[in-house]
Amino acid sequence: MLEHQERVAFLVLIGVAITVISANAVLGALGKQPFARPFSETVPDGELVMAEGNISQVAITHSGGNMVIEMENVSVFIPAQLADGLRIQKDDPIRVYGTVQTYQGKKEILLGSRDDLRVLV
């Protein structure tokens, strides 16, 4: 049988676990949209951003098979494991979520998941 203090600790632990699970479910359902800022050149590296526009160019890197998408105001870098089998083309309207990184002095968006790219219909 548990002592009084052990029962209280156990109930607190159960309460914390339920709170964490609930928060995870709510934040997962909300997605990234409420937390992403619109992309601009002034956003610091590591920030979660969103950009929307028409694709002006799609290129595969010579080494590694990564994909780089050019839109009106930003480049989007898609690692090879996410780019594999991705079907997008020039002039497709898209919305992307990702983190800002600077590559060769230019800001770009790094995709973290295939779900972070949506072709708009």
Provide a quick synopsis of the model.
With 121 residues, this protein is an alpha+beta fold. The chain has helices at residues 4-30, 80-83, and strands at 37-38, 48-54, 57-60, 67-70, 75-78, 93-103, 106-110, 117-119. The protein contains two helices and eight strands.
Give an overview of the whole structure:
By secondary structure, the chain is of the alpha+beta class. The protein folds into two domains: 1-30; 36-119, Nucleic acid-binding proteins (OB fold (Dihydrolipoamide Acetyltransferase, E2P), Beta Barrel). 26% of the residues lie in helices and 33% in strands. It has helices at 4-30, 80-83, and strands spanning 37-38, 48-54, 57-60, 67-70, 75-78, 93-103, 106-110, 117-119.
Helix content: 25-40%
Quick one: overall form?
Answer: elongated
CATH topology value of the largest domain: OB fold (Dihydrolipoamide Acetyltransferase, E2P)
Total helices: the number is 2
| Mean of residue pLDDT values | 91
Radius of gyration: 20 Å
Find the count of extended strands (DSSP E, 2+ residues).
8
Report the β-strand fraction as a percent range: 25-35%
Low-confidence stretches: none
Overall SS class? alpha+beta
CATH class division of the largest domain: Mainly Beta
Topology:
Blueprint: H1 4-30, E1 37-38, E2 48-54, E3 57-60, E4 67-70, E5 75-78, H2 80-83, E6 93-103, E7 106-110, E8 117-119
Parallel strand pairs: 1-2, 5-7
Antiparallel strand pairs: 2-6, 3-4, 4-5, 6-7, 6-8
